[in-house]
Amino acid sequence: MSKLQEYFHTDWSAMTGTDWFGLVFTVVIFLLMVGLYFWVLNPKNKDKIESHRSMPLDDDDETNSEKKDG
Length: 70
Hints:
By secondary structure, the protein is mainly α. It has helices spanning 3-7, 17-40, 46-50, 55-69.
């Protein structure tokens, strides 16, 4: 084996339950992130996403108005 193959070699039979959970969790999160990137960066979804552009600012305004009234 070359040094690169030795470096990336995995002993699948020696993996514990925690190792398998971490592997599956990482792969699932990666796939969800790739799907999310494609959804967000798709031009046909631009209007739907842009409608929520000021959501953090709107939420902050509601909190400030409640403090002023009270």
